[in-house]
């Protein structure tokens, strides 16, 4: 017992660390064209940062200031989102296009500046415009100022999972918008930008390789940067102890499989305790759609885990879950709990605002700009509480909020309840009347420091599906999650109010619900949306407008001088 408590000592010391230890971590991101070949296809041009896929890793220590100079040398407009960073006092640096900033146009530049006080663990950064985050992404690691609340690993490794298209992703997104039909599925999955050995391609440099020493412990910082696909992750003949998710510590959770939705991160300890040899890491898709989701690539990405001294033999492949193994996915995602530490935030017990929000697919009329849309019919849409979100075109929402000039930009009437109460997960509810939604730019206004409880309810309209819902500007506590229609009478007594997992992205169970709770103590404009890029484009999002608090430190600051202009 004394040994386990000793791991918490550095944590206590970190609470009294000097502010003078903080540093400025500075990077320049040159976004431009990169010629690259994957899957034995001819070289093609992608958009990438500093000529890398994935892009450069940002490593900072808790309390540091991060400064990133974005130089846009690509032919496309660009923004960068720092996924999971709270942006307290730096709201203009959050990054989603037309939500907190206008895009940086081709040939332009913008400096993102933010602090990472009170955060530590694995986060990431990515483009937040069009489908460009398919190749514009990288890790953002925040080291603790003291030590870890678990035994220090011998080494740390970043494992970024992604998707790859043998096509121009901007063209795919544009055609999807113009026609009103989702873009096709990816051609491959990737580990650290490479698809691996199982894609019938003998070209060199297609597989990422990790070297390990027997009996050493490795901290794997696993990030799902895929556009549209939750993934199972395994390493043959090895197991994990999960110690954090979304840069929030968890009670140690032992498993041989990690389940990770787009936008999420998992920190897992892995002991290299197998026989000296070569083993595959593997990432395979989890298809949650019921009765059948959109088409997906039924393939497996691999990387090679090689022990020092191993012979060059064919690596062992792990036994992977079936693509539709919802039981395994739910068991992993629902069994995690928080590691409660001194000085860390705990779940609020009193609630000021309760929201019940449906999330799912539907149909809508063609927009005027959708030039190839069949106007005699409806097209795919997605919505929250039957409001299908459309970002403004000429002014960012944060700019309109700051200048108090909201007319024509957004309305403050996002509903706390769906317009119709129905059997949300029943096949009988799936009819043309219930599927229909309309486009709007509606926000929910919150008072500063208000506590919000939100039930996220998946619907059967079109299909049941697990939607990874990401909230900018905050972490939230996951009080409970399950399948079917939410029933407060039976669910509320089961709420975990002691050590619920803390996240910034929740995979709402397919045909089910999740209850989250957070304190709106960060003024500004904060996007909440599905992290399936295809669903975000179809309208599965909304915005929280958090009013200023009583002091300058609890108010949105003035915009930086180099904030990009729309036009």
* Model regions low in confidence, pLDDT < 50 over at least 5 residues: 1-18
Structural class: mainly beta
DSSP strand content:
35-45%
Extended strand count: 32
Question: Main beta sheet: strand number and arrangement?
Answer: 6 strands, mixed
- The whole-number mean of residue pLDDT values reads 94
Helix segment count?
8
CA distance, first residue to last residue: 62 Å
Q: How large is the radius of gyration?
A: 23 Å
Helical fraction equals under 10%
Query: Strand order, biggest sheet?
Result: 10-9-12-17-14-15
Shape: globular
Which characteristics define this entry?
567 residues; single chain; six-stranded mixed β-sheet; mainly beta; globular
Structural overview:
The protein is mainly β. A hairpin with a 7-residue loop joins strand 1 (24-36) and strand 2 (44-49). The chain contains eight helices and 32 strands. It has a six-stranded mixed sheet, with no helix packed on it. It has a six-stranded mixed sheet with strand order 21-20-25-30-27-28. Mean pLDDT is 94; it is low at 1-18. 50% of the residues are buried. The radius of gyration is 23 Å and the shape is globular.
């Amino acid at each position: 017992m004394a040994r386990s408590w000793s791991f918490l000592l550095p944590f206590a010391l970190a609470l009294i660390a000097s502010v003078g230890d903080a540093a400025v971590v500075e990077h320049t991101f040159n976004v431009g064209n990169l010629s690259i070949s994957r899957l034995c296809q001819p070289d093609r041009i992608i958009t990438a940062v500093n000529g890398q896929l994935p892009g450069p890793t940002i490593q900072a220590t808790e309390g540091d200031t991060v400064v990133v100079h974005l130089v846009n040398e690509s032919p496309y407009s660009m923004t960068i989102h720092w996924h999971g960073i709270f942006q307290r006092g730096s709201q203009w640096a959050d990054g989603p296009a037309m939500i907190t900033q206008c895009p940086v146009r081709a040939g332009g530049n913008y400096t993102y500046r933010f602090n990472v006080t009170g955060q530590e663990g694995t986060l990431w950064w990515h483009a937040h415009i069009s489908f460009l985050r398919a190749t514009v992404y990288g890790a953002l690691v925040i080291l603790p100022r003291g030590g870890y609340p678990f035994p220090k690993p011998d080494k740390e490794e970043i494992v970024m999972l992604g998707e790859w298209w043998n096509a121009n992703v901007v063209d795919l997104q544009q055609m999807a918008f113009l026609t009103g039909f989702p873009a096709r599925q990816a051609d491959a999955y990737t580990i650290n930008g490479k698809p691996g050995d199982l894609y019938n391609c003998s070209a060199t440099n297609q597989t990422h390789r990790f070297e390990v020493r027997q009996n050493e412990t490795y901290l794997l910082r696993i990030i799902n940067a895929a556009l549209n696909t939750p993934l199972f992750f395994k390493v043959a003949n090895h197991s994990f102890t999960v110690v954090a998710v979304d840069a929030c510590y968890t009670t140690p959770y032992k498993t041989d499989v990690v389940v990770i939705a787009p936008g999420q991160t998992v920190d897992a300890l892995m002991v290299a305790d197998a026989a000296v040899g070569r083993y595959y890491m593997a990432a395979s898709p989890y298809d949650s759609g019921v009765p059948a989701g959109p088409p997906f690539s039924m393939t497996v990405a691999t990387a090679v885990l090689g022990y020092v001294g191993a012979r060059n033999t064919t690596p062992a492949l792990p036994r992977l879950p079936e693509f539709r193994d919802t039981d395994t996915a739910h068991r992993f995602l629902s069994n995690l709990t928080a590691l409660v530490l001194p000085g860390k935030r705990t779940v609020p017990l009193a609630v000021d605002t309760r929201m019940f929000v449906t999330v799912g697919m539907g149909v809508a009329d063609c927009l005027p700009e959708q030039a190839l849309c069949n106007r005699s019919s409806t097209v795919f849409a997605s919505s929250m509480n039957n409001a299908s979100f459309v970002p403004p075109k000429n002014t960012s929402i944060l700019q309109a909020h700051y200048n108090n000039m909201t007319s024509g930009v957004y309305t403050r009437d996002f509903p706390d309840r769906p317009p119709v109460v129905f059997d949300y997960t029943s096949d009988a509810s799936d009819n043309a009347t219930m599927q229909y939604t309309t486009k709007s730019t509606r926000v929910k206004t919150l008072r500063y420091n208000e506590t919000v409880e939100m039930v996220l309810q998946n619907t059967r309209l079109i299909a049941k599906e697990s939607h990874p819902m990401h909230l900018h500007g905050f972490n939230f506590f996951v009080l409970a999650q399950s399948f079917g229609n939410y029933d407060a009478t039976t669910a509320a007594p089961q709420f975990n109010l002691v050590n619920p997992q803390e996240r910034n992205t929740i995979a709402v169970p397919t045909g089910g619900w999740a209850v989250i709770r957070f304190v709106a103590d960060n003024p500004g404009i904060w996007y909440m949306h599905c992290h399936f890029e295809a669903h975000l484009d179809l309208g599965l999002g909304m915005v929280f407008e958090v009013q200023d608090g009583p002091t300058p430190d609890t108010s949105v600051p003035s915009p930086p001088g180099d904030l990009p202009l729309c036009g």
